[in-house]
Amino acid sequence: MARIVNIGLIQMPCGDDIQANYDKAIDNVRKAADRGANIVCLQELFKSRYFCQTVDSNWFKLAEPVDQGSPTVQQLGELAAELGIVLIAGLFEKRASGLYHNTSVVLGTDGGYLGKYRKMHIPDDPGYYEKFYFAPGDLGYPVFHTKYASVGVLICWDQWFPEAARLLALNGAEIILIPTAIGHRREEGEQSANDGYDGAWQIVQRGHAVANACYLAAVNRVGFEPAPELREGIDFWGQSFVADPNGVVLTKASAAEEQILVVPVDLDLMDEIRAGWSFPFRDRRVDSYSGLTKLYLD
After folding, report:
1. Which residue in 24, 44, 94, 225 is the catalytic one?
2. List 14, 41, 52, 156, catalytic entry
3. Residue 87's closest CA among 13, 196, 10, 16?
4. What is the model's pTM?
5. Domain 4-293 is classified in which CATH homologous superfamily?
6. What Å distances lie between residue 186 and 127, 164, 230, 237, 257, CA to CA?
7. Nearest Cα to 38, choosing from 64, 3, 70?
8. Span 166-178, pLDDT tens digits
C-alpha cells in the first residue's frame, strides 16, 4: 500500500494589518484542510509584511514568545487539533529582552506543541537586513515525528546550504518544509527575477530533494511590498512548489497570485529510490569531510 500524505502550502500576500493577515492565514489553513491536507505550512513571518527591508527598531514590538504556553501557539494548536492536521507556522520570536529569532513552530494533530526551529543562517543584504532583527538559531536541525511523516524545517536563507538539508535527512526527515520570503527588488528588473527563480532558487532546493532522496516543499509569499523609506520594495515571486525525491516538481504555484496548494506525496517512493541509489547515505565518505567544519580552506 502506498503511504500517501497530502502537503498543504499557503502562499499569500501580507498587508499592514497584522490581525487581517492572521485571519486570512487561518482561513486558508481551513481551506487546505477541507481539501484534504494533512500537513500545512505557512510562509515565513506570516503575520506581517516582510519588515526586514529596512532597519527600524519599532518592528521589535511585533515579536512574541514562541513556546507551549504563548497565546499564538495555543491558538494555532487549537486549530491543528480541530482540523486534525500538522501545522507549521513562521513567527517573530521574542526569546528575551533584546534577543529575537526567526522561528517556525510545529503543532501536532492533537494540538500539542511538538517544538520549534530557529533560523540558523541569517542574511544581511540590501532589502534583507535580518541580522539587525534576528540572532542565529541555536536549536540545531531538529526533526519532528508527526502522525503523518517525519518532518524537518528550514527557513528561507537556510535553503541555500546543502549541509542543513543533509543533517535533516540524516536525522530521519522524510519531508523538508521551507517557509520563505524571497523575491526581487523592483530596480533589479524582470530578468533578475527570472534568473533568481529559474537559475538558482528552485534548482538548489530540488537538488536537496535529490541528494537526500526525500520530499521538499517550499512556500513563499507573493505580491509587492513597498519600502517607502527606500523608495523601492520587493516583488515576492511566489511559485511555491513541492519536489519529489527525483527532483521532479509535482506542483508549482502562481508567481503573482494568492494560492493554496494541496499536493499528495507517496513516502514509499523514498525507499524505492534509496534502494536504487546509494549516495544519500551508504556511499558517503564521512572520514573525508572534516573540512566542512571550517569556514574556508586556505
Report:
1. 44
2. 156
3. 10
4. 0.95
5. Carbon-nitrogen hydrolase (3.60.110.10)
6. 11, 30, 11, 11, 17
7. 3
8. 999 999 999 999 9
Instruction: Based on the residue annotation, tell me whether 44 is a catalytic residue of this protein.
Output: yes
Residue 42 near residue 179 (C-beta atoms within 8 A) = yes
Contact 29, 75 (CB under 8 A): no
Cα 177 from Cα 43, distance rounded (Å): 10
Instruction: Give the Cβ contact number of residue 121 at 10 Å.
Output: 17
- The single residue of 14, 119, 130, 214 carrying the catalytic annotation is 119
14 assigned to active site: no
Burial class (CB in 10 A: 0-12, 13-18, 19+), 132: middle
Q: Where are the domains of the chain?
A: 4-293
Distances (CA, A) of 157 to 106, 122, 224, 256, 260: 19, 7, 20, 21, 23
The predicted-structure confidence for 252-263, as pLDDT tens digits, reads as follows: 999 999 999 999
Q: Which residues pair with 40 in a beta bridge?
A: 8, 87
119 part of the active site = yes
